[in-house]
Design brief:
This protein is mainly alpha-helical. It has one domain. It is 74% helix and 1% strand. The two termini are 26 Å apart. This is Probable membrane transporter protein. It is found in: Cell membrane; Membrane.
């Protein structure tokens, strides 16, 4: 691997780790575009590169989410039962989503990725602030176990389908439909991503075994070299993101969440290329 590619992956890992800790997302929406650039520039066919990027990003999201969830748990920002139920249902859904991705064309996958990220960003931007008075997220509206299980399955499926940990969808759902404040939504999402990402990783490994044309250091649709570079940078910076999350007002968290996701979603869909805009 060329030095410039390794450097780009490390920078992506730093940004993904910080986003994971601060925003309660796996950071896949940051890592996937960088991985696609590295893989396609290295001569990997675009559809295969997309599948590898999705699977590898989910593998990195797993330890990063564990690190972030521990930090949020120490601050009392994780609702354990909600995280467990969402995560278990999400694990099953993510495995199924990964199976679909193994058969779908790359262009369609990248468009789906962009649409999911932008839709989640817009939902977060328009959601009412349930944590009035500073956004500390102390109030919780009780929901039945079935609600979390029913939500976890489709959220997990989309997670596996487009190679994201699920936080980009879980945070707005938890902070609006399920009645958690923004900080508890972020913390609970980080914990649920642990299980959701596991299901996706298993699926990408299983469905990529024996596929010809994979780059060196691959295990199915996971590239172990990229995992090492991304995770090595993202894991320590996740804790920094956790500290930042508890020092920033909820409305500012929403703005950061929304702007970053909209940009990356448009980029993955090729919108800037179509409009001939350089951003």
């Amino acid at each position: 691997m060329e030095l410039i590619f390794a450097f780009g992956l490390v920078l992506a890992g730093v940004a993904a780790g910080f986003a994971s800790g601060m925003l309660g997302v796996g950071g896949c929406f940051i890592m996937v575009p960088v991985q696609l650039w590295v893989l396609t520039a290295s001569g990997i066919e675009p559809t295969m590169a997309t599948r590898i990027a999705f699977g590898t990003a989910l593998a990195v999201a797993l330890p990063t989410a564990i690190n972030a969830a521990l930090g949020h748990h120490r601050r009392g920002a994780v609702v354990p039962r909600a995280a467990l139920l969402l995560g278990l249902a999400g694990l099953v859904g993510a495995f199924l989503g990964g199976a679909v991705t193994a058969k779908a064309p790359g262009d369609l996958l990248r468009i789906a990725f962009g649409l999911v990220v932008i839709a989640a960003a817009l939902r977060m931007a328009t959601a009412p602030d349930l944590t009035a008075g500073g956004g500390e997220g102390d109030g919780t509206i009780p929901r039945s176990d079935g609600c979390y299980l029913l939500l976890g399955l489709p959220l997990g499926f989309i997670s596996g389908l487009v190679g994201i940990g699920g936080g980009v969808m879980m945070v707005p759902v938890l902070s609006t439909a399920m009645g958690l404040g923004i900080h508890r939504a972020v913390g609970t999402s980080s914990a649920a991503i642990i299980l959701t990402s596991s299901g996706g990783v298993l699926s990408y490994v299983y469905h990529g075994l024996g596929v010809p044309g994979l780059p060196p250091f691959s295990l199915g649709y996971l590239n172990l070299l990229q995992v090492a570079l991304l995770a090595g940078a993202s894991i320590p910076t996740a804790r920094i993101g956790v500290r930042a999350a508890h020092r920033i007002r909820a409305d500012r968290l929403r703005k950061v969440f929304t702007l970053l996701m909209v940009y990356i979603g448009l980029e993955m869909m090729g919108a800037f290329e179509v409009l001939r805009v350089t951003v």
